[in-house]
Structure to design on (242 residues):
C-alpha cells in the first residue's frame, strides 16, 4: 500500500516536472540516487534467484520423498538394507532419503564392529549429523532473503534523503519555490522509496514461506530418524545373531 502511494505521488510529480519518459528521470537523477537504484536492482535480482532456487529444491525434495518412502518401506520390511541404501542413493534430492541413507550406512558399518546398544547409538549419532547437514542445506540462501527484506527499505530511504537534498538544491539554484522547483528531486526520492519497498516486501514474504517449509522438512526428518532408530532396535537382535 505504501509502495502504491509512493508510485502515485511519483507519477503526479513526474507530470509536474515535465518528465514523460523514465529515461528523462534517470538522466535527472543524481549519482547517489542512481547508485541506490542499481543496488536495489541487484538485491531484487538476487532475491528472485534465491526464491527460484529454493522453490525448485523444495518441490523436488517433496516429490522424491513421497516416492522414496513408498519404495524403501518394502525393502526395510524384508530386511534388505543394501537395496534400501540403493533406493536412497537414487533419490538424492529427497531430504528424507539423505537422512535414511546415512542412518542405514552407519548401522551396516557398525554392525561388523559393535553389537547391541552401541550399534543403535552409532546409527543414532549418524542420523543426528545427517539431519543437521540436510537442515543447513535446506536453509541455504534464506539468510540472504532476510537480509534483503530488512535492509532494502533503508537503502531506498537513503535514496529518498538524496532526492530531498537535490530538491532543496534545485530551490537554491533557481531561487524560486513551488512544485516545479522541487518536483524533480521529490520524484527521485519517491521512486527510490517505492523501489526499496517493492524489493523488500516479496523478500520478507518468501523468507517466511520458505522458513515454514524448512520447519516442516525438519519435522519429517526427525520423524523418519525416530522410526529408523526403532527399526534398528528391533533389527539389532537379528544382526547380533548373524
Amino acid at each position: 500500500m505504501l509502495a502504491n502511494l509512493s508510485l502515485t505521488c511519483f507519477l503526479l510529480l513526474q507530470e509536474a516536472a515535465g518528465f514523460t519518459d523514465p529515461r528523462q528521470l534517470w538522466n535527472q537523477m543524481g549519482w547517489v540516487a542512481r547508485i541506490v537504484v542499481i543496488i536495489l536492482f541487484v538485491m531484487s535480482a538476487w532475491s528472485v534467484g534465491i526464491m527460484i532456487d529454493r522453490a525448485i529444491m523444495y518441490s523436488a525434495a517433496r516429490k522424491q520423498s513421497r516416492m522414496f518412502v513408498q519404495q524403501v518401506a518394502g525393502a526395510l520390511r524384508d530386511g534388505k538394507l543394501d537395496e534400501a541404501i540403493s533406493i536412497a542413493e537414487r533419490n538424492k534430492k529427497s531430504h528424507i532419503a539423505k537422512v535414511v541413507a546415512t542412518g542405514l550406512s552407519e548401522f551396516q558399518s557398525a554392525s561388523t564392529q559393535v553389537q547391541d546398544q552401541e550399534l543403535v547409538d552409532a546409527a543414532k549419532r549418524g542420523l543426528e549429523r545427517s539431519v543437521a547437514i540436510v537442515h543447513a542445506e535446506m536453509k541455504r540462501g534464506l539468510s540472504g532473503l532476510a537480509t534483503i527484506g530488512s535492509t532494502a527499505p533503508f537503502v531506498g530511504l537513503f535514496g529518498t534523503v538524496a532526492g530531498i537534498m537535490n530538491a532543496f538544491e534545485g530551490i537554491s539554484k533557481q531561487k524560486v519555490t513551488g512544485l516545479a522547483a522541487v518536483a524533480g528531486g521529490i520524484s527521485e526520492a519517491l521512486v527510490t522509496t517505492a523501489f526499496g519497498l517493492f524489493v523488500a516486501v516479496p523478500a520478507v514474504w518468501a523468507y517466511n514461506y520458505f522458513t515454514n517449509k524448512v520447519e516442516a522438512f525438519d519435522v519429517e526428518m526427525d520423524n523418519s530418524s525416530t522410526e529408523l532408530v526403532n527399526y534398528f532396535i528391533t533389527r539389532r537382535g537379528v544382526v547380533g545373531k548373524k
About this structure: The CA atoms of residues 14 and 21 lie 9 Å apart. The radius of gyration is 28 Å.
